[in-house]
Design goal:
The chain has a single domain, classed as Trna Endonuclease, Chain: A, domain 1 (3-Layer(aba) Sandwich). By secondary structure, it is α/β, with parallel strands linked by helices. It has a five-stranded mixed sheet with strand order 1-2-3-4-8, sandwiched between helices. It has a three-stranded antiparallel sheet with strand order 5-6-7, with no helix packed on it. A hairpin with a 3-residue loop joins strand 5 and strand 6. Helices cover about 25% and strands about 30% of the residues. The two termini are about 20 Å apart.
Length: about 140
Amino acid sequence: MAEVIQFGKFITASEREVASRLKDLPANWTVICNKEVVTPAGDTYEVDFVIIGEHVIFAIDEKSWSGDIYGNENVWVLPGGEPRRSPLQKIGHVGRQLAGVLRGRIREPIRLKSPSFSWTVLANVDPFLMSWPEDVSSEISN
């Protein structure tokens, strides 16, 4: 069972559900919930989940959205026609900022097969699914 460290309160019930499911990751993994990443330039980014595994780091943005969602890398349209900025760009940017902060603060080299991954999790779907793409699964298990 992974260690789960919670910095801030969960905003939604689905964030709490994702954290509960992330406990099932391997025991040598750490899940950090609701952490703010501060860059050397002083910019602050909130990250729903930072997952630190043996060979990988994930930055995950959870969304409590459900129903038919369509869009592209810039805009997602929710049921009812409400447009939202795509969470993919935000979490990708936050993941890159997190990787930069870690590179700047860790003195010994980290040997990650891949530096980091960023994902958006849509947790408010039925059934709740959380799976890693196959190319990432091979990175994690090796």
